[in-house]
Amino acid sequence: MRRGFDPVEVHAILHRVAVELAATRRDLVHTAEENARIKRALRSWQSQFTPGRRR
Question: Which residues, other chains included, contact 47 with Cβ-Cβ below 8 Å and sequence gap of 6+?
Answer without folding.
Answer: 53
